[in-house]
Write a structure and sequence with these properties.
Strand 8, helix 8 and strand 9 form a beta-alpha-beta unit. The chain folds into two domains: about 140 residues, D-serine dehydratase-like domain (Lyase, Ornithine Decarboxylase, Chain A, domain 1, Beta Barrel); about 200 residues, Alanine racemase (TIM Barrel, Alpha-Beta Barrel). About 35% of the residues lie in helices and about 25% in strands. The protein is α/β, with parallel strands linked by helices. The relative contact order is 0.15. It is elongated.
């Protein structure tokens, strides 16, 4: 007999206290604070408006149609960015028709994108080489579609993309512009290395270089007679902390929706802005070891230790441990170790340890919202700190 997974959404008939939610569904649970989410969305919307650029929310973190609808509310466009074809298929099924898949494609995935395009969904793809462009062109011809294209520009992240002054940029631009199966829409870049910079001044430099690289690439293509409409940049740190660069038309960001301990440490947000947390139960209390154990290990929190780079109070171990009803930080508890299903939390004194007997609940704010959220298939939405009011689905996989 195959036991189906629980239908969490069907169980919500009235708001539930967190203790009752933990009893009904079992911890660990991924909690999403609705109020903090909306405040984060409003803050980024205002920032884009003040900069005079379009905001294209990146749903690689949230992976939820419920969150996406809130994220595009009040924007001039409902365009979003995605990181996987599975996300593109999911959001298309939920009515989103303007998608940018910001990852270089391979042929099997292009077949799936072509089906979305044939169904009337705009899905822009990313190119950074003639090899991928030719493969995309072959797929377009065989599948009978035309792929909208964004050329990826390298701005210092050293991952994908073409440097804005490299001759390969113009070669690729001319190829795409002259190919009947491809349509060049614009250029984009992503300053992933912004996460390596804690100093605000250094982060500002990275943000400026990010924008300048994209603009320089667009101008080079235009000077060569190639039409470029969109100039897109984005990462949560650079959009949150950087100044607008003239010529940029669009910003993309995703982690800002939820924030996390690393973003708070970088100054992109505050700890009071962190919208997701993991509700965990104390399953062992060990005075002889000076620690307690929670049922949220690496498969609930991930092994991300990004805050270690922050040092001092910014380093929260494997997550920032908080009271379950208030999300108030408990500085006397430190999340030091994760195993697959166990999380070890050190206490500063026997008295503190005694305050959290077996069965106690704790809220743990993650180091990295994206990878922690990816451990779950749903959000238990909290109105304020105490009541679960809804369950929202999210999509995982590729």
């Amino acid at each position: 007999m195959v036991i189906p997974p629980p239908n969490h959404a069907a169980d919500i008939r009235q708001p539930l206290p967190l203790a009752e939610a933990a009893s009904r569904w079992s911890t660990p649970l991924l909690l999403l604070d609705h109020h903090r989410l909306e405040e984060n969305l409003r803050r980024m919307r205002r920032r884009a408006e003040n900069a005079g650029v379009a905001l294209r929310p990146h749903l690689k973190t949230a992976k939820s149609a419920h969150v996406a609808r809130l994220a595009v509310s009040g924007l001039a466009s409902d365009g979003i960015a995605v990181a996987t074809v599975r996300e593109a298929e999911y959001f298309a099924a939920h009515g989103f028709r303007d998608l940018f898949w910001a990852v270089t494609p391979t042929r099997p995935k292009l077949d799936r994108v072509a089906r979305l395009i044939a169904a009337g969904v705009t899905v822009k793809i990313s190119l950074d080489s003639l090899a991928v462009a030719r493969a995309s062109s072959d797929a377009a011809r065989e599948l009978g579609v035309k792929f909208p294209v964004m050329i990826e520009v390298e701005c210092g992240d050293a991952r994908c993309g073409i440097p804005p002054t490299a001759p390969e940029l113009l070669e690729l631009g001319h190829h795409v512009a002259g190919d009947p199966g491809l349509h060049l829409v614009g250029v984009y870049t992503h300053a992933g290395h912004s996460y390596d910079h804690i100093c605000p001044e250094a982060l500002g430099v990275v943000a400026r270089e990010e924008g300048q690289a994209a603009v320089l690439a667009a101008e080079a293509l235009r000077n060569a007679g190639i039409r470029v409409q969109e100039v897109s940049v984005g990462s949560t740190p650079t959009v949150s902390r950087g100044e607008p660069v003239p010529g940029v038309t669009e910003v993309r960001a995703g982690v800002y929706m939820f924030s996390d301990c690393f973003q708070a440490g970088l100054g992109s947000s505050g700890y009071e802005d962190i919208a997701i947390s993991v509700l965990a139960t104390v399953i062992s209390n060990r005075p002889d070891q000076g620690h307690l154990v929670v049922d949220a290990g690496s498969l609930a929190m991930s092994k991300d230790r990004s805050t270690e780079r922050l040092g001092g109070k910014g380093d929260v171990g494997f997550g920032r441990v908080c009271h379950h009803t208030s999300q108030e930080w408990i500085p006397d508890l430190r999340f030091t170790t994760v195993n697959q299903e166990h999380g070890i939390v050190k206490a500063s004194s026997p008295e503190v340890l005694a305050s959290f007997p077996v069965g106690s609940l704790l809220r743990i704010q993650p180091n990295h919202a994206c990878v922690t959220a990816a451990c779950f298939d749903a959000y238990h939405v909290v109105d304020g700190h105490r009541l679960v009011v809804d369950v929202w689905d999210r999509v995982n996989g590729w």
